[in-house]
UniProtKB/TrEMBL annotation:
Record Gene3D superfamilies: 3.30.465.10, 3.30.70.2740, Vanillyl-alcohol Oxidase, Chain A, domain 4
InterPro entries for this protein: FAD-bd_oxidored_4_C, FAD-bd_PCMH, FAD-bd_PCMH-like_sf, FAD-bd_PCMH_sub2, FAD-linked_Oxase-like_C, FAD-linked_OxidoTrans_Type4, Oxid_FAD_bind_N, Vanillyl_alc_oxidase_C-sub2
Lineage: Bacteria, Pseudomonadati, Pseudomonadota, Alphaproteobacteria, Sphingomonadales
Cofactor(s) demanded: FAD
Taxonomic superkingdom: Bacteria
Record-given protein name: FAD-linked oxidase C-terminal domain-containing protein
Any Pfam family matching the protein: FAD-oxidase_C
PROSITE patterns to which the protein is assigned, alphabetical: FAD_PCMH
Keywords: FAD, Flavoprotein, Oxidoreductase
Residue span, FAD-binding PCMH-type domain: 50-228
Amino acid sequence: MMSLVMPPVREDVIARRLQIAEALRRIVPDGVVCNETELKAYESDGLTAYRQPPLVVVLPQTTEQVSQVMAWCHGEGLNVVPRGAGTSLSGGALPLADGVLLGLSRMNRIVEIDYLDRVAVVQPGVTNLGVTRAVEGEGFYYAPDPSSQIACTIGGNIAENSGGVHCLKYGLTTNNVLGVEMVLADGEIVRLGGRGLDPAGLDLLGVVVGSEGLLGVVTEVTVRILPTPETARAILLGFPETRRAGDCVAAIIAEGIIPAGMEMMDKPATLAAEAFVHAGYPLDVEALLIVEVDGPPIECDILLARIAEIAASHGATTSRISQDEEERLRFWAGRKAAFPAVGRLAPDYYCMDGTIPRKRLSEVLDRMAGLSEHYGLGVANVFHAGDGNLHPLILYDANQPGQLEKAEAFGADILRMCVEVGGVLTGEHGVGVEKRDLMPVMFDEVDLAHQQRIKCAFDPELKLNPGKVFPQLHRCAELGRMHIHHGALPHPDLPRF
């Protein structure tokens, strides 16, 4: 049962389910799901606390099919929810009971690889790791690497502006996407950006990356591919207190060192990951840091030595540098598997996502421990320490009355604290439905109205992924958009400028 308020359901649309499915089959003959049992596979994304089977699912394979589907739905006044692999952790792909779910998983071709221009052109259903697998034979890779990279897709990465372990040095999705082909709400196909690093004109591509499916449906993506670094090595650091680990993170960056990745786990997460993967983590520490550097061997040697010195000055009790590629990958295996590993600690967990200034890490972790005691719920911390992107995992049991509501309240307090100390509500998971009602904590009415005007420019009828991101979505006319009724402007006698 959803405790979440969503847009009112149109019963007249639900009554037309079979007719809608039949019309969509004429566009995508082999890609429509309407059976109620089969629809359950799409009832949630990675935020499983909220569930809602869609009206119908359509699975196109080409841009032309997406365009036809969008045009038909636009003509019928139907809501459309785009969906990638469904790994989103903010409810961004949560279906609507009266909405068409547009799944892009079958659009999974790599269209072109150009090593001279260092780009790959891919469809949105290609997995994040699939891009690297396609180019690694020529010594290249795709830098953003979310923990779910084996399953999450490039289209979903664009929707949420996903990051990952290596985003500290190489940037988020927005820094690695050069262009997109996109279908607008009425079926029009447009292209934004291209192969150049800095296209002329308004940065509409920057608006689309991270827009959570509210502005259009991406059907093709041009991404940057990078030469694989000559060397990559990692150092494993253990600390007797989380505060010391947090201070060490800030000190490394203050030294002018930008690691390829810098990740932190507290003791509950470390114990769970070690039991799950057997990565060789120390079990007697309260916090674990994994810091990776890459580049020429001599540069890596110098940076690792300096990082080890900084860690020692902050009381590190464990300091181990990877001696070969196998050991480096083993260090990361536990971190990559931390989320599923934490599933051993409780029947359910609620994965949060907020970002804070690095210098406030220690303070926020201490305050989070206090909130854990206040709510009577455990918390395991696994996060991108280098850029202050927190991922607290709140442990609860959904079968116990009231625990889900406690977890939600605990999570909301964490996000309010992130904003209070100078951070933001989300780093890479998006707003979706999870943080939607907290948007006024960070933005005032004027800010939100300006954001909604962008939504109106792309989707005037507000039919794309409604109920997400905005706590209250105003009609476009209410935001100053001129409303034309039956082809006539209001007050036609007044001069227009």
